[in-house]
Amino acid sequence: MRLRIFQMKADKLTDKYPDYEEQVEHIENIPPKRADTVQVDEVIDNRIICENLPFDGLFSHQAESLDLLNENKNVCVTTPTSSGKTLVYALDIARKYINNNSTTALLIYPTKALSRDQKSELSDLYDQLGLDIDIGVYDGDSSRDEKRRIRRDSNIIITNFQGLNYYIPHHKKWSRIFRNLETVVVDEAHTYTGIQGIHVAWIMRRFRRISEGQYGAEPDMILSSATIGNPEDHCKNLVGEDFKVVDNDGSPRGQRDLVIWNPPSYYDDETGTLDRRSSNRESSDVMSYLISENVQSLMFAPSRKTTELCAKWTDEDLKSNYAGFYDIEPYNAGHRKDDRREVENKFKTGELDGVVSTTALELGIDIGDIDATIMNGYPGRKASFWQQAGRSGRGRSDALSVLVARHDSIDQYIVENPDFLLEGEIENAVIDLGNKYILQPHLCAAANEMPLNFTRDVANYFSQGPIMEAIEDLKDKGLLDGDIMSGDDVKYTGSPRPESRIDVYSTSDEQFDVFIDAGDDNYELPSVDKSRAFREFHPHAIYMYKGNQYEVSEFDRENKEIYLEYVEVNYYTQSSRSVEVKDISEDDRKKITDDIVVKKGEATIAESYATYTRVYFDKGDKEANLPTGLNEPVELKTDIMWIELSNELAADVENASAVDGLAGSLHAAEHGLIKMSPTILTADSKDLGGLSTPYHDKTESSTIFIYDGVEGGVGFSHEIYKQLKLLSEKTSDLLTNCECDSDRGCPACTMSPMCGDNNEPMDSVGACYLLDMIK
Fold it and tell me: Lesser CB count within 10 Å: N end or C end of the chain?
């Protein structure tokens, strides 16, 4: 089989891979496994289904789930990619339809592309069963006539949470659906964490409040998820009800060969540190080689910009070094939907040899049976890693997955400790329902849908959030009216359509429209929030779209419009960030030692993007400190945790440091803790920010701050507060064992490209001394 090119000892790759320099650090051969099945008629008591299914057996987890649903239990199915989770709810809906052809089901998917893909899969199944189950996709791309038909006729209504947010206020139009609702499905439930997870949790409670309270619906809830550490708690946080978890996977698997690949290292004479070739370039070369061997490949890259760059570099490498014609495309949410649908279809039919995607293709969209996945850097979570790896070799076919490590702490930790991926627990999904900034617009929407009542609403739907505080704030703003504590109904008194001010993907309501200037006509791209606008679309920034380069020619702050012009340059841009922490309020503290106190609470973070850097393609040379012209800060009030040191301990850390004293030690510890945070919670280190200082005027001590990088916070820094000792232990181990053997550390252990101080000062020795005191 052609995938055997990697199923050999690393030294044999010398003759296969161009310029091989012993990059393979680990090969794990994950053996195939056979299916564990149960006869269909042992689970489903219906001749129509049993006699018309194209197979005799259900996987054991499918059978267990259907048994629980038959007992009217809410079920969370948490099994790997391509394990047949869809069949669970498809068959449950089918048997309900046979008993009552008026039954309705609401299926909620994270993306429009996945919605349409799943409609096709369900339609094929019901055709095989001979069941006339009407399925409709109800979202922003559906016409008015189609929406009207779906509300009138459909048994299965497929939508997404942003759409559901808009549709709940119009529940009278949905009365037929709600009165007959027997099934609600939330697919890819593990993706709903952080900001999006909080929004989803309140939308689900608003939805239940209307469907149950107004129409008497009592549907079975089915959530499907990749493997996470806390599926039962996560499902309850999302929906507000109890769930039974089914996690014993009975599906078959072909052999999977997992390769951990470390780009070659070199000593940088200028910086005096050990460095590595860019994972972007290395991933592109690995992908071009696989494609040249007729291995259809999917690369996952960490950002929209990187998808464009890696697709460009892969294409250039194929043209330069390999004979033949190859077609490579980038794929990310910055592309228009028509462009994305075209890439999906061409990849599925084999017209494309390779695609470079963000996590957008991590989900269950059917892109065919591809041969190999390449992960350009660890995606930050084990759940995401196995989802991405699982996109190749679906079903019983063999597969190849290559993790190309970045010169970053998490990645280099995995290189040294591959068992981190293969053993131990998966991270928890984190949803903090205490975020009143996200709760408030949902309370406005809920009160507009049906006045808020203390007995009914607080106890049943909003008990987990700071509802009283949020209601009082909204009353002060003139958006709500009524005394809920005295039994009055609280009514919405603001401007119409409060649901329109809710963005499932953000806490910010300040959006910038982005246009490509194409002469007489402007080509509109998806809008961006203020933070992304300042960070990625500042004046003179280079933005890549579909392999082409565009420069920001106009940044209209007043009208919130950004215009791009086509250019051809030999560089890309990176903005620089500076941070100020102010308005700190404490809500909890704990004493680690007599010299260390850890606290958590809220603060205002002021982030400035006043300068940027040009990074040149050819040699990686940089031109730094170029002005953006954007001098106003982006402010957010958010969750924060911080570590305060006594004067005595600060002096000890200063003495223990090797090169850059107390300031360097605090800085290295801050970077290390943030970099290692994905090992303990479901977050990317980019979701967090930090600041360290030998003296802060508010704490009056040496302090390390770590905060959530979004308005209102999402609970990440507070989770670090809870697990600081474990995180400190992991971070200390990384800094101690890093192969750089540098007193200042390196990009693998202490240094970050996002650092506003250019990673100066930095002292990994003093950082280890401090972390050892905490762990």
Answer: N
Helix (H) or strand (E) holding 514: strand 511-518
Domains defined for the chain, CATH in brackets = 2-30+254-422 (3.40.50.300), 37-246 (3.40.50.300), 436-501 (1.10.10), 511-569 (no CATH), 578-774 (no CATH)
Taking the C-alpha atoms of residue 733 and residue 223, their distance in angstroms, rounded to an integer, is 37
- Could you write out the DSSP letters of every residue in 95-126? HHHHH-TT-EEEEE-SSHHHHHHHHHHHHHHH
Among the residue ranges 62-71, 543-552, 692-701, the one predicted with the least confidence is 543-552
CB 75 within 8 A of CB 243: yes
| Residue 364 banded pLDDT, cuts 50, 70, 90 | low
* pLDDT score of 199 more than 60: yes
Q: Which of 360-374, 462-476, 617-631, 710-724 has the lowest mean pLDDT?
A: 360-374
- The answer to whether 746 and 268 are in contact (CB under 8 A) is no
Q: Dump the DSSP string for 428-473.
A: PP---TT-HHHHHHHHHHHHHHS-B-IIIIIHHTSTTS-HHHHHHH
Distance CA 263, CA 265 (A): 6
Q: Is the pLDDT of residue 14 over 60?
A: no
Reduce the DSSP state of residue 544 to 3 states and report it: strand
HSE of 715 in the Cβ direction (CA atoms, 13 Å)? 19
Q: Identify the CA nearest to 102 among candidates 179, 213, 184.
A: 179
DSSP for 17-33, please give it. STT--S-EEEEEEE--B
- Give me the phi and psi of 508, to 5 degrees please: -95, 135
Q: Per-residue pLDDT for 82 more than 90?
A: no
Mean pLDDT, residues 456-465: 83
Contact at 8 Å (CB) between 166 and 445?
no
Residue 542 CA to residue 309 CA, distance in Å, equals 12
- pLDDT of amino acid 7: 45
- Per DSSP, 506 falls in state -
How far apart (Å, rounded) are the C-alpha atoms in residues 618 and 595? 50
State if pTM tops 0.85.
no
According to DSSP, the residues that pair with 404 across neighbouring strands are 261, 376
